[in-house]
């Protein structure tokens, strides 16, 4: 019942051959996702995230900056510090070693969250419609 936050296959950083120059977990002057300290079975100390909570900002070589949002309510269990020293794994292995964060949704909400997810086929159909409408 944990959620691993990764970049979607269709994200511009994975599509256009851009190079990632930096990843920053410092969300504001007072909030850094790297300060997240979790302990114990009940995950005490974990930062609570809403669907619109920013997780990190990713800068690319062409000057674009992308803010990656949680998209899910829950406790931030961990952020992937490996991508700070090696941002290329975010593009090379986005769904495994290049994950961004791990979030634990509230137990009561986890069932409704998973029921609302798209299947791979539904996701591909959404992407196809998006591509057709933009061309």
Automatic annotation (TrEMBL):
Stated family: Belongs to the ABITRAM family.
| Entry annotated with the keyword Cell membrane | no
Q: Which GO MF terms are attached to this record?
A: actin filament binding; actin monomer binding
Location comes to:
Cell projection, Dendrite; Cell projection, Growth cone; Cell projection, Lamellipodium; Nucleus speckle
> Matching InterPro entries, A to Z?
Abitram, GCV_H/Fam206, Single_hybrid_motif
Is Heme one of the keywords? no
Q: Biological process GO terms, please?
A: dendrite morphogenesis; regulation of actin filament polymerization; regulation of filopodium assembly
Keywords recorded for this protein, A-Z: Cell projection, Nucleus
Gene3D superfamilies recorded: 2.40.50.100
Q: What is this protein called?
A: Protein Abitram
> Which Gene Ontology terms of cellular component type are present?
dendrite; filopodium tip; growth cone; lamellipodium; nuclear speck
